[in-house]
Amino acid sequence: MELDVGRDGMRDILRKVVGIVSGLVKFIPEVVEIEKMSTTELYVFLFVGSEGRTMNSILSKELGISRPSVSIATKSLLKKGLIETHHDEDDRRFIYISLSQSGKTTFDKFLDAFGKIVANVLSKLSESEAAKLNESFEMLVKFVKSLSSIDE
């Protein structure tokens, strides 16, 4: 099914997406280590924290960020002691990234604070509204994943 929403419709959708992103950024919990991160560092940190061990090439592909930008972000996060690197035991050319102990502590603080925000929002919704919100997030994730297939 193709939907032609036109230029004004596209602008409205873009405005809503920007509103969602900027609205969520305002609610990023006040965790000092996170407040000091660049946007790219934040994306890398949250990806590594939520997905576990990864590599720069995967970060670049999954986040849609250039490899040089990912490399700069990971070097900065290494300096801050929030991530650590490990060589693959079988092939030392492969370097994996994971959260350091300090990074895990910071990520846990973020999750706790973020959890409180989500719980607060959900407490204000009816069960039906919460189900619709969950369904909308699932649709949004599906939509975003479908965008990546356009490039391939």
What is the count of β-strands?
2
Biggest beta sheet attributes: 2 strands, antiparallel
* CATH T-level fold name: Arc Repressor Mutant, subunit A
CATH homologous superfamily assignment: Winged helix-like DNA-binding domain superfamily/Winged helix DNA-binding domain
Radius of gyration, whole Å: 18 Å
Which CATH architecture is right? Orthogonal Bundle
Q: Percent of residues in beta strands?
A: 5-15%
Q: What is the spatial order of strands in the main beta sheet?
A: 1-2
In whole angstroms, the N-to-C terminal distance is 20 Å
Total domain modules? 1
Shape label:
globular
Poorly predicted ranges:
none
- Mean pLDDT comes to 86
Number of helices: 7
- The level-1 CATH class: Mainly Alpha
> Structural class, judged by helices and strands?
mainly alpha
Chain oligomer state = single chain
Describe this structure in words.
Helix 3 (39-51) packs across helix 5 (67-79). The protein starts with 5 loop residues before the first helix and ends with a helix. The protein is built from seven helices and two strands; from the N terminus they run αααααββαα. With 152 residues, it is mainly alpha-helical. It is globular. A two-stranded antiparallel ribbon has the order 1-2. The chain has a single domain, classed as Winged helix-like DNA-binding domain superfamily/Winged helix DNA-binding domain (Arc Repressor Mutant, subunit A). The mean pLDDT is 86. It has helices at 6-26, 32-35, 39-51, 56-63, 67-79, 101-123, 127-151; strands at 83-87, 95-99.
